[in-house]
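User: Sequence for Membrane protein below. Tokens please.
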Amino acid sequence: MAQAMDRPPISLLATDGKPHPLQDTLVAVTLILGAVAFVTAFFHNLHLLSSWTGLLGIATGLYGQFISATTRERFALIIGLGAAGIGFFLGMAHGGLFGGWMG
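Assistant: Structure tokens for Membrane protein:
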């Protein structure tokens, strides 16, 4: 039972016991952008905000998936990617990235 005390404390994202500052930052940015895109997608007049934050959330989430190191990071990135994708596509349906500014 002594070996049970040698384990490091449970962390939220680093399940391998190593720090992952870049991956943790990408997870946080993707979750924030996904939440903003998802919430603003339900307001028709905020389609510019929802489509751009959704697009940025998808880009950061995909790069985060590419360099992620742990399963917990990948799980959180998928949640953020899903919210960003919904926000992006609803924003595109409501008016798109430029909203009629480019013709």
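Residues 21-94 form one domain.
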